[in-house]
Amino acid sequence: MSTEKVSPPAQQRQDASDDPGSVGIVVPQQHTFVEPLALACGRTLDQYTLVYETYGTLNREKNNAVLICHALSGHHHAAGRHSEADKRPGWWDSYIGPGKPIDTDQFFVVSLNNLGGCHGSTGPASINPQTGAPWGPDFPMLRVRDWVHSQARLADLLGIGQWAAVIGGSLGGMQAMRWSLEYPERLRHCVVIASAMKLSAQNIAFNETARQAITSDPDFCHGRYLAEGKLPRRGLAVARMIGHITYLSDDGLGKKFGRELRSGTFDLGAEEEVEFQVQSYLRHQGDSFSGTFDPNTYILMTRALDYFDLAREYGDDPVAAFSNARCRFMLMSFTSDWRFSPERSREIADALMHANVPVSYAEIESPMGHDAFLLPNDRYQRVFAAYMKRVAAECVGRDAP
Amino acid sequence: MSTEKVSPPAQQRQDASDDPGSVGIVVPQQHTFVEPLALACGRTLDQYTLVYETYGTLNREKNNAVLICHALSGHHHAAGRHSEADKRPGWWDSYIGPGKPIDTDQFFVVSLNNLGGCHGSTGPASINPQTGAPWGPDFPMLRVRDWVHSQARLADLLGIGQWAAVIGGSLGGMQAMRWSLEYPERLRHCVVIASAMKLSAQNIAFNETARQAITSDPDFCHGRYLAEGKLPRRGLAVARMIGHITYLSDDGLGKKFGRELRSGTFDLGAEEEVEFQVQSYLRHQGDSFSGTFDPNTYILMTRALDYFDLAREYGDDPVAAFSNARCRFMLMSFTSDWRFSPERSREIADALMHANVPVSYAEIESPMGHDAFLLPNDRYQRVFAAYMKRVAAECVGRDAP
């Protein structure tokens, strides 16, 4: 049996001396796909660009590739840093890197910015080649399956016939599940974290309120804010604040801020004053987000979330849906996550078991709510790493002559 | 023992033939108080008007009066109708009326619009006599205790030395608890429904986001929208949507709307389209509220909520706080209420027991979230009625020669 060690390229390890668990400096790549993509809404994108990053090395057998699917506000930059000066690493740096659960010494990790995004891939803020102006509200509405189809094109480009695993949290988990139905032969493992087969009415209601905050901002200009030289920052900030509260748990917020006063006194009177630490934190979150994220993308992503309904074309029967899957599943959820509660993951596990699809499920204790899937957590890391070690072992096994 | 039956005046029963449980047609009353009111913020209101309604008749001993304290968006019109044409009765009509838990055949019920409100009592939309223009953002910030003090003046006006009970849900429950500390001798029973001794960080965060939605609406004009001939309707609508979701439970929303589509199809594409029933419902709720409620009042009320902290002046010790109470307590909470969860009521019950204050507590099964305190519910009605029957019996007892 071969024990070939897959090492990341030297370029990616150049600053790893500081942090042996980091993939180091990474350079985003991009590709423009010119084969038209038929979308679920009935429209077609004639061409589109996807921005992506890769960490680790694709082995000779091309069987160690892992796809990372991002959530609502995510992007391609999942691990490492873009420069030595970069203050923050990628959004999932705690889980991707040498020796980490998604071990870049073992896997070739691909992370992209989804179509419709605002970090370099074609989206509402991109120029519509037919008009020479930003797409804005004319950008097609996307469904999760459209992302899966565009991700499959990226796999083709990279020469990956079958993913060792497709992995995602939240909206990313929906993409991973959809992969198992759209391309059952193209993945061996599906890792679905803090996700659901469909949103609850409450989730839809929060998303709708966030969209209303954006679209009712006069600077939204019916989605044509870029053409008008405006930006509905205030609306997007409120939308982000709504999201942010719901991604944290009541306990998590309480532990982080309690009812601590910013000034240490209750004697403030001015209407505009920020009194509680949690207010200050939320305003900062909203403001900084609204300077970096495209409002039309936020609307598009939340609508894709709302519309996702895994079993809809299968007579609303998740067992029938998952009967098409050919991969193994690993599910994880977090005890204090109330937007994608453990109950939603148990529903997935139940459906998979009834469909005779192999599934492991771990419910992780955490006070951090939905955000837990992004944050360091001992048990989560151990469970995740243990599963991925088995996935990696299979890749090595397949290397055997 | 006298068994004098207290009957509401004929005028109030005039249309009761249609609905024997209704207090009938009611006429709001108002009084302008000219004795200055010193406020917790350090400022003073030289004069102010309170609008109120009364149901039932004050007995000779004036010992059967009950005060209703309203919640965030409530007002004085708690029961009955303002005219025969009135389509909807007062906000707590299910619980106030002849034979209802707050039985107007037994009690003289007083319900007011709080100071700072926008339904007739002096508030930010009233004219500041010193400027001749609406108060707007210059209206003083109020605390729950300010409401209690102004309510005590109303009691004086009506000749009520001691309430048989002070009753409130949510923010109204906070007023009831504060009554027991500010005027321990002026109430015999304190009925606190779906309330808390202080808000959690999550609750503050939701309120802060709602306020941000209002204040970031350009039509807010730093709170001077009335002087500018504007109204931040969009911001207030979003604020109300946020509130509305959090007053309902996930299950409740699910049962009411599920993921039902408005058009019965997933094939809609327009960005402005309303697809899910829950979206349509929320938009309607937001729009209709924003046409009738004053945005500055919404800010004032949510800030009073955020700042309420029952035990703050008692060394953060609720037991020390409640040791000042001289009344009996009745607490109720609802299983699916996640903004004022049963846990919060249990904390109140624990503190009262440790302070040796008599307390009854009922946790009511309901899928309706925080809103449950306003809605018909068999067990809630039975428990509430049983408690109030004992309160009424005491009033009769005190009538004895």
TrEMBL record, chains A, B:
Where does it reside? Cytoplasm
Which residue positions does UniProt flag as site: Important for acyl-CoA specificity?
Answer: 339
The record's listing under InterPro entries reads: AB_hydrolase_1, AB_hydrolase_fold, HAT_MetX-like
The domain of life for this entry's organism is Bacteria
Comp. bias regions, Polar residues: 1-14
| Annotated metabolic or biological route of this protein | Amino-acid biosynthesis; L-methionine biosynthesis via de novo pathway; O-succinyl-L-homoserine from L-homoserine: step 1/1
Residues annotated as region Disordered?
1-24
AB hydrolase-1 domain location is: 65-374
The active site is formed by 170, 337, 370
| Catalyzed reaction equations | L-homoserine + succinyl-CoA = O-succinyl-L-homoserine + CoA
Q: How does it assemble?
A: Homodimer.
Q: What does this protein do?
A: Transfers a succinyl group from succinyl-CoA to L-homoserine, forming succinyl-L-homoserine.
Q: Return the protein name.
A: Homoserine O-succinyltransferase
Give the lineage.
Bacteria, Pseudomonadati, Pseudomonadota, Gammaproteobacteria, Cellvibrionales
Originating gene = metXS
